[in-house]
Model the fold of this input.
Amino acid sequence: MTRVSAEDRRDALIEAAIRVIAAKGVTAATTRAIVAEAGASLASFHYAFRSRDEMMAELITVVTTQEAESVVHALVPAETIEKTLEAGFHAYMNVVRSDPSREQAMFELNQYAMRTPGLEHLAREQYRTYFAVAEQILAAGAESGGLVWTRPLPELARLLITITDGLTTTWLADRDDAATDAVIRDAVDLIARYAVASPQKENR
Amino acid sequence: MTRVSAEDRRDALIEAAIRVIAAKGVTAATTRAIVAEAGASLASFHYAFRSRDEMMAELITVVTTQEAESVVHALVPAETIEKTLEAGFHAYMNVVRSDPSREQAMFELNQYAMRTPGLEHLAREQYRTYFAVAEQILAAGAESGGLVWTRPLPELARLLITITDGLTTTWLADRDDAATDAVIRDAVDLIARYAVASPQKENR
DNA sequence: GTCTATACACCGATAGAC
DNA sequence: GTCTATCGGTGTATAGAC
Done:
């Protein structure tokens, strides 16, 4: 192997680990499987990382950020808040459908963090990121339609993530697209109720 | 060890495995850890089960049934459908709070089934059981209040499970009781809208 | 920095005595 | 049926040559 900076080696190993995890799950992501995917030697792994858990910790934050970006990127504002929300849910579900194993891996990683001493905070951090993304999406959706939310944004963001999580776990289990769409319509109705026309800006 | 029938041995090992999984996760449930918990020898495991996966398959159906029963058992009908639903969600969350690790294990087992060749059908089966329980709960809740659902029960059952799953994953990640309660109130409003007074029985 | 070789723990599973 | 002892494989991590 040609010489590579420590930073590049770490990144390459993490990207390789992400591919392995997305394909075969967290359990299959052994150091041997990761270096094989990265085309590196076993020793180079422990030159770049003190331990497998150290790499997993970094991987979790990287993959959470990637997930957040891919969801935000898939969004498109529509004419009404209902259509925007519905399109948002469908865009998200298309991300899930395009790589179910990867989405399952997000849950596995969260549980891995919860079960691993010293990594518990990463589980919480992962959801903090999700909530922040949800707030961002809701804020943008309301603003583009000239609306305001009549409920505190953090509450609606958690509601959105709760439903999204549930949609994902149930779909992963039975892959029922039609039933998922029906739940999405309910979710849209529920959330859209909390959006009202923005009051005219008052002079003062 | 005294002699035990094959059936009893299987049950004892499965119960031991459930305890190990609930405490430390699916990954920690090695054959050695299980027999140690059961007070048996390693060989007796493979006398009772052809393989670890054979035991895991049986365990998943057992634990899914247990989970269904413990939820149904925690229910109490109230005066209105709203109160019944809200009490139901809180009863469920109390089950989760009383043993978070066990509830996390339900997700881990589901994912284990999805990742293990030959066990995929168990993941679907697990959710079929959940949906059936949800239908049962919704039917009983409406009947006790003299109401009928204006939506197909399977759709409402899936909605209920979707929300319950999301409530669980988010609560497991950040243990935020107050935020969870707020989401529950939304869920109650959403579902209760589909219950109306039962029409009088008509003579014919 | 990168490699091969290896240490050492633990995994699932089985052989064979009792 | 139950046990101890052990096999072959794989896990994380490291030693030491280059």
